[in-house]
Fold this protein.
Amino acid sequence: MRTAAPLRRRKTSTSTIPIVFTTVGDPVGIGLVASLARPGGNLTGFSNISTDLTPKLFELLSELVPQARVIALLWNPNNPAAERMTREMEEATRTKEVQLHILKASTESEIDAAFATLVQLHAGALVIGSDSFFYKQRDQLVALASRHAVPAIYGSREFVAAGGPISYGPNLDGIFRQAGIYARRILNGEKPADLPVQQPARFELVINLNTANALGLTVPPSILARADEVIE
């Protein structure tokens, strides 16, 4: 499972059926588990600590597009971690000479409207907040960013594979494989309450040079040297 709202509904509807979640940003903060080490109850799984990555996304985007003086953050207001993500972004930009605009979208049409606003603001770069809805709409997001020639950074490599210029985040395939292992352990008799919520130990920096070139960006050697994967 990827979204937090259905998880919270299932948590309140059953206390016996084991649930293994994946890519939840802050499972303690939204009340899914008591703690990471001792989740308690019938839920456990894997966090992608997406909210904690927002300052890093801004840092990388600023390095890729140093001339950008107006930067936007797009987030889903239905995401329970959205407010924290916004605070992290505001803190990261406070000491920089940039204007930050917060845009919200929770439907396909709202994504279209957000990009129309982005153009009106003359934004030079865009941070896409990590969110399951945005992940599902990654083709739409990448296509709009390309159409409007706005450099954007994303939270997983799947966006770069779809044509985005840069991403930084955990390897989702690895998280899903680990979730399968947890499910097998539970089927073999272990309890979710005894399986700690795990956080990713490794994060990937992925660059799509074709997209960067199409946007007129020169990827700094400092980014290329740190990249885990470069798509050409």
Summary: Residues 96 and 204 are 25 Å apart (CA to CA).
